[in-house]
Amino acid sequence: MQGENVLQIHLKGLPEIDWQNGSRHIRCPRGRVVIEMAPFEKKRGLIHLPDKVAGNERPDVGIVLSAGSDTGLRPGDAVVVRAYDGTWRTDFEAGTYKAKGEVRCYGVYGAAPGECELYDWSDSVLALLDNELNMTPLKRNLLVKRDPTVKQEGLIHLSDNSVYRTNIGTIVSAGPDSEFSVGTRVLYNPNAMLQIDMIEGDPDLGVCSDDAIEAIIVPDEVALAA
Predict the structure, then answer these.
(1) Which has the least CB within 10 A, 89, 105, 212, 221?
(2) Residue 190 to residue 187: CA distance in whole angstroms
(3) Among candidates 82, 75, 77, which has minimal Cα distance to 59?
(4) In whole angstroms, what is the distance from residue 83 CA to residue 143 CA?
């Protein structure tokens, strides 16, 4: 079952959502984003998930209905989000717009009755998706090719319980506000890295923000020349 450190993008194409009608009836203030989420797929290949299991899952992909003028997002953009962030509503209606899936709002969070805390929307709305389901990170977010798991040390094959990652990877795509460049080797905090689980995808890819990068790994030729 999905956890908070896994992005499940189990789609074969972008969801069909009536975002044009939704955008006519919804307006966002600055720093806020409203998204209709894709229906959660109850089928994994030939396997149908039980309703109890599917009901506990939260979709990670949606279509922007409205966004604040400072976000750079537009209605109709397909985005990847943190599944457990924001506030969400079911059976949402606004004028003639009736959402088929959950409608989520990012940039604000009600921690408790009577309390309201503001969050940067880009902490939750991580990347754009194109028609081929390729991800482009937003703001300070990064797409990282993590080094593969270590399954052997010397001549010894590790047991499944002993397999581990070095938590080192290479940045393959960076948001426009990131301080890191594509191709940089980095040491990342594994607790802040989101694994990407796709039907057809690279199991070593992950998403994180600049804040998850703990150190830059300097290449030998650069280190020796210093």
Answers:
(1) 221
(2) 9
(3) 82
(4) 17
- Residue 221's pLDDT is 76
| Tokens matching residue 218 | 């300097």
Strand partners, 97: 94
Give residue 164's pLDDT band: very low, low, confident or very high (50, 70, 90): low
Whole-number Cα distances in Å, 142 to 138, 157, 207, 220: 8, 32, 6, 24
Helix (H) or strand (E) holding 55: helix 51-56
Please give the C-alpha separations between residue 86 and each of 120, 124, 125, in angstroms, as whole numbers: 11, 8, 10
Q: Which two tokens stand for residue 76?
A: 């109709």
Token code pair at residue 216: 């830059």
| Short-list 80, 90, 85, CA closest to 110 | 85
The tokens for 39 are: 């229906």
Q: Which helix (H) or strand (E) holds 51?
A: helix 51-56
The token duo for 149 is 């798991």
Average pLDDT score over residue span 182-209? 90
What the chain holds in terms of domains, given with CATH numbers, is 1-132 (2.30.33.40), 140-226 (2.30.33.40)
Q: Return the bridge partners of 150, or none.
A: 164
Two tokens, residue 225: 């020349």
Res 56 pLDDT > 60: no
